Amino acid sequence: MALTLFPKHCLRTLSRTPINAMSMGVDPLVQRLLDGLRSGQRASLAEAITLVETSHPKKKILARHLLTNVLKDAQNSQYLRGHKSFSFRLGLSGPPGAGKSTFIETFGKFLTGMDKKVAVLTVDPSSVRTGGSLLGDKTRMPELSRDMNAYIRPSPSRGHLGGVTRSTNEAIVLCEAAGYDIVIIETIGVGQSEFSVVDMVDLFTLVIPPGGGDELQGLKKGIMEMSDLVVVNKSDGDLVPAARRMQYEYISALKFIPPKNKYWKTPVKRISSLTGEGVPELWALMQDYNKIMEDSGELIRRRQSQRCAWLWTHLKENLINSFLEFPEIEENLKKMEFEVMNGFISPGDAADLLLQQYLSNHHCQEKI
Known about the structure:
The protein is built from 13 helices and 7 strands. It has helices spanning 28-38, 42-53, 57-81, 100-112, 142-145, 166-177, 195-198, 215-225, 240-254, 279-296, 298-325, 327-341, 347-361; strands at 88-93, 118-124, 150-156, 182-186, 203-208, 229-232, 268-270. It has a 7-stranded parallel β-sheet with strand order 3-2-4-1-5-6-7, with helices on both faces. The protein is globular.
């Protein structure tokens, strides 16, 4: 729809890769990774995720080629097996201190105990100053990290709010290709910025701690509207009364929020990641949700809309990268930044001028 605003020759700088690059023979690296994913090799999965996270131009071509073949395999599997070919995608969000990592450790071990293969994609905050990340999530999940039916992949947030990037979405597809039944995405937990993970998962879960007093107000309405399930964690010992109180508060609050879809009303469950109490019942509830979504056709519709959402996410990123890499823009950007910082021009006018310069240099006559 909006693509008609740009003539074809304006989009040539989005990628230096020729359109027919994918029609070439399969690269040996891509074929090796593809074979490894098909046989469920953890090393191949780790290498494949590293490949899709790269910013190197040549490696990005290989990553695109790999993903194309992986998606073909997924389509063939869906044609043959239907919904049974789908993994269960679970998104976890919540404030720091809610016990998300401990919950994943307990929940993951519960699932692997039933011979389920579990992949966990976690996000560590990147330093604003250095860009580095600790990537220490495995140390908080010692038992699960040693489990051969589990795979834990920490990734840096790279400044993205909520920590979810385009490569996270692609990593989910690769985990599914490697045969993992459940893929869990744990976000940083910074409140309203968690929404991007909703466009990746089948079930979005909000994990909250008991006690405190202002959690309900602090999390606000937006994150609750997006949640399919609310879990009150740490319901053990002296915290049980506080956990019950928090559960009742959320049940009451959810009465005033329109349901996310007509087939499911968001429940609030209490569990203890320390003792494992409530975890089997929570999994049963998740299975009920998944069956309802499958039977109603909502699961397919949600995944289709999610693919479209990530199409636009990728398109926006590519357009911004193309804009910033253009030589004339690069020269004038610092000048515009100086004028904006010193109040000589408004940010909106500066953006319009830079965009007009970009379009005029590409001989585009249409207005945005």
